[in-house]
Amino acid sequence: MAATADWHPLGKAYYKKSEVYDLDWDDLVDISKFVVAAAPYGGPLALMRDDSNNPSIAMVVKPIITVYTAAGRKISQMRWNSGKIKDLGWSQTEDLLFVQDDGTVLIYDLFLSFKKVLSMGQEAKDVKVIDARIFSGFGGTGVAVLTSSFRIFMMNSIDDPRVQRLAEVPGLQSAPTSWTILTMDRQSQALVAKDSELYLIDRGGQYQKQMIDISTPVEGFIDMAVSFNNKCIALFTESGVIWIGSADLKKKYCEFNTKCHQKPQQLVWCGPGAVVALWDKQMLVIGPDKDYISFMNDSPVHLVEEEDGIRIIGNSSHEFLYRVQKVTEDIFKIASMEPGAMLYEAFKEFQKESQRADEYIRAIKDNLELAVSQCIQAAGYELEPSKQRQLLRAAAFGKSFLTDYNPEPFVNMCQMLRVLNQVCNHIIGIPLTYFQLHHLTMPVLIDRLVLRKFFYLAIRICQYLKIQDSEGASRILAHWACYKVQQKQEDDEMIARAIADKLGDTPGVSYSDIASKALECGRTDLAIRESMPQGDFFMAIRNLPVAYFLYLQYCRQQNKELMEQLYYQEDNYLEEGNCKILRSFTVERYEERMNMMKEAMDSYNKARNEFALRQTEEQIKLAKYQRRLEEELKRPYMDLSLHQTIYRLIKDNNVKMSEQLRKEFRVPDKRFWWLKIQALAEAGEWMELDRFSKAKKPPIGIEAFVEVCLKNGNKHEALKYIVRVSPDKKVKCLIKMGEFKMAAETAFENRNEDELNSVLRRCIGTDRQVAETINSMKQQLLSKK
């Protein structure tokens, strides 16, 4: 069969659909009956039975969550025991996120072990979430929720869980017809459709009505899809028209009439060059020039967007649809005269022992290096190992005629493809392409193998690629040992022997980290064994200063109770009190924590340390306040510092309580003002911030208000305060805002050449017109001297 037989033309490009796996779950899973969440870059699949059409069942029976590899091999399973799930999806680090209707975000690992819980805020909890989006932004994985009051709350990164309330869409009285998250210029915004109107809303409280170039009348936008690279967007209208254009909506690529008024089950991008719409078993691939390909699937499918294509998950198969790269076209297109095509033909003739091989080589002798490079590149874009081998052998054949050829690209491609074929193996189930690996990077792939417990393969890959032991084999062995001590079905002796045999004196492996993991798992005997009574050990080690300080450092990091006993024996009351304070924060029960703090006060009293004694009294008083706040407000306050407590109270609109706390603990005016304006700005309470600025003369200056507005992405609000900023600080504020023209005019009014130079330094190369204006202003100042 010709290499181009399974190519499908789409305008000037070609697309190809290749089978990746026969799924292990064959006949056990009907995709149409499940909610599917798939991680990109060949990641795992999470399946949850879709009971949305049977609400009575959903209320009684909790769903079962099952995680599979991309090959359909089961990894883990659990029955859900929490609230109603509105959305589920994967983070960039392959953690599984569940967004509940109360605004809670629960995070589990690949094996469905609970990791942590986040909240989308009190308002989301009170009014309930009706829709959610899990997205990838510049800061990592983010979450956005739409509440029943039709407000959108967004968390840019689950690693920095700060919730921001976005601006309201004017006149929105019902749920938007569609909405999505756009990440542009390192900022995440929501694009919301209110019937035929589009609004871009941000966390700074601003909204902008968007106008797009569309020729057909629009009653409503009912679906949206943003490309993997966040540069393009597709909008689906009620009349069945798909509008394809740039993500900023300023450039239209095409309008395509699908002649189907029904909303597609999925609307996704296939790389940056095509949009795919799925209805039941029909899949429509639409190009930017109104060309299309229609596929009919044998069974219901789920589409997974990748950087260079889409994965198609069916009931029994896993396929990959992708664009045929130009270098592959150049080699395999019929009658191609490209150097790579000629070299490939020469190699095929050489295999037949035909003299025509020599004729082909002579024909491209001046472009032989290019031909070799084309064959190497094309091998990287092929998914079938047999075609990869043919292309690489053709490249090897061609480079044998070159006397001064750098073999590094050839060797590198051979190594990468060998690794990719290993991880694509049915047992491993990570079907990455060469293009995806280039963006994911090899260290991340190795981390993903370690996460899946494929330690041996990860080590062999590190050895094969000659990765340093500190970053490769030693690090992986340490992970393996930490995993080993968690195996509860094996006894301590067997685990200790296995770790000792495997690790030995391997450099770069920290046995203390392994012992710490054993302690976390409650295996104290495995972590450390006493060979003499503790008192005798303490007395012996005191005579060895180096050993004593090393042991003290170990206790400080790993065993606080042991360190406390050591200080007690030495009558070191100050350090003993410090240990008790540190331990008190590891105790959850309030009464037990208070008792430990009082014991610490006794130790400080014996040490005659008035400062530590007074600080502990203050901490006890704060803890009592926090306990009362938790009971009254039903919000967590324990373990927060005084500043954090005040900050949260202000952010949650409990201003009177924050004032009371301020007076009780004598918080300085300047500090309190900073806390309050930062909290109000983060909460988006711009009117309250404005009122507060006018209550009395701010001890921190008006420029502080400008700063917090800018920090929270509201330049429009910051401009309101500029007129009140003192002249000597106004220029600096305007520079921070990027208002170079206004800054220059202010500096000129102040007759301050240094300020003009400061503005000039920042706008040279970015705003030529302003730079010329500033130079003119400087000349005027010089002429007036």
UniProtKB/TrEMBL annotation:
GO terms for cellular component: CORVET complex; HOPS complex; late endosome membrane; lysosomal membrane. Pfam families: Vps16_C, Vps16_N. It comes from Sinanodonta woodiana (Chinese pond mussel). Plays a role in vesicle-mediated protein trafficking to lysosomal compartments including the endocytic membrane transport and autophagic pathways. Believed to act as a core component of the putative HOPS and CORVET endosomal tethering complexes. Residues 4-411 form the Vps16 N-terminal domain. This is Vacuolar protein sorting-associated protein 16 homolog. It comes from the Eukaryota. It is found in: Late endosome membrane; Lysosome membrane. Gene3D superfamilies: Vps16, C-terminal region (1.10.150.780).
